[in-house]
Amino acid sequence: MKVKNCMQKDLITIGKKTLLQEAGALMKKHSIRHLPVVEDDQLLGFITESDLRQYSFPSQEKDIYVHEVMVLNPITVNLNASIEKAARLIHDYKIGGLPVLDKKKLVGIITAIDLLSAFINMMGLLRDSSRLDVLVGKVGGVEDVTRIIKAHGCEIISVATESHSSRRKLYCFRLEKGELDKAIDALEEAGHKVVSVVD
Description:
Layout: H1 20-30, E1 34-39, E2 42-48, H2 49-53, H3 66-69, E3 71-72, E4 77-78, H4 83-93, E5 97-102, E6 105-111, H5 112-123, E7 129-135, H6 141-151, E8 156-163, E9 169-176, H7 181-189, E10 193-198
Parallel strand pairs: 4-5
Antiparallel strand pairs: 1-2, 2-3, 5-6, 7-9, 7-10, 8-9
Helix pairs in contact: 6-7
């Protein structure tokens, strides 16, 4: 999935001459934590809720403009980048969101919450489903497991892997809700070990 499929497109933006108080009021009004600073659709900077908190002391009475405190050259992502790339950037730089650019034009924002929603959707976690955890046997591999599951009328939503204590990979199949007993029996007969079934 690409960033453009799950980014926020209806943006609230501000200019560099906006006062910090105004930026804070906009964030509060629209329940957002990030504001791109733009001029003619070009991204000049980025300001976050945490940036504003540093300047919200009563002792600081003078007017402060956004351009004085905004993040210059913020980390950005291209709208055609994968959501995995966006997730890595957010994780590696420990930030809550990324401006999304098409060439140099600001076209959206993607946040950690947007990415979490996309991954939950991709994995089918909100659908009525079951999870089948399988240690694949020595013969046939994961292709054989997939074939058996499908042959018994079970629809695969997603597949994930994790390491197992046996040093073999554990395959976690997210399946459409349905009858699994026959598929489980067939997997065991074929030499695959069903470790757990989670509804």
